[in-house]
Amino acid sequence: MPHSPSRRRTPLREFQLIEALHRRYGKTGPNVIRGIGDDAAVVTPVKNHEMVVTTDLLVEGVHFDLKTASFEDIGYKAAVANLSDIAAMGAKPNYLLVSLAIPRSQSASEMQRLYRGLMLACRPYGVELVGGDTSASRHGLFLNIVLIGSVPVGCALTRGGAQAGDLLYLTGTIGDSLAGLRVLSARHGHKQSLPPVKPSTQELTRRHLRPTPRVEMGQALSRQRLATAAIDVSDGLSGDVRHICTQSRVGVEIEVDALPISAALRKFAGMNKQDPIDVALQGGEDYELLFTVAPRSCKKVEQLGRKVDCLVSCIGIIKPVSYGLRIKDQSGVLHPLPMLSYQHFSAAHNLHREKSWSR
Question: Under CATH, domain 167-340 is a member of which superfamily?
Fold first, then answer.
């Protein structure tokens, strides 16, 4: 449920918040020598593993809106954004550090709810909270996450290993999160949102507020040496595939008919006179894995998907860099792959994202 002000608001005090977090989350496993409460955490490195570190900064009004998300939702999704980065590297997430800049309008109970959401997302993977920082904020809530993981030496997946002839795979479905955001925005009267829709959109809003990080899939792709390159879909497929192509110095051909689009998204797009392909290409924050696979490993990847109960779809093929980035429509006609993904600092990106690649 979206945030609603409480009648009784406990004033926020930094040291009391830290002590409450220590009591609730301070119990850690044997690899954490010192966690919450010291100037820095002390952990024992995992033997024969390399450390993988990621961080994300989330800003109120840019990455989340308190009108459309609860504090638990915000914490959960912040954790997933980082868990997904670790998954894309084929690593195991281990340790979490959280820094907050908190406006005076927020209460201690609201921040504890945010941490509950964070740990709800992290606990299934054995992630331990080992530290962080707090500060006052004059301009909304700021949340920064640092997540530390580990991967066997030499097994980390990167964006730079794709080769011409590799097949391009995607987990799950895409575009659902963006559709869910539009549903939530419409319900709360945002001017540029789509009108509310009557049929159930619970699955779309769930995919936006509580996405699933593909941690098990990423680790298995790394452990079995199946993926040649990987990235998570956080900014949108049309932009994230570019990162693989740029880092690997390759081109790509994507098949529109192969894109995994959920029945819920197709229904939503149809009722709102939208092209579901446009939503799928531009929609970010699905946190699915996009990865490349040598043809000889395709059967193993598909078997792996069934084993970990994760839909995997082959959506295209890697080409030589001279081929460029192209997408084949339902009629077999090739088009340049448009850039529809979210880009920070781009004044024109919202207008650009509304243009259909097929028109």
Answer: PurM-like C-terminal domain (3.90.650.10)
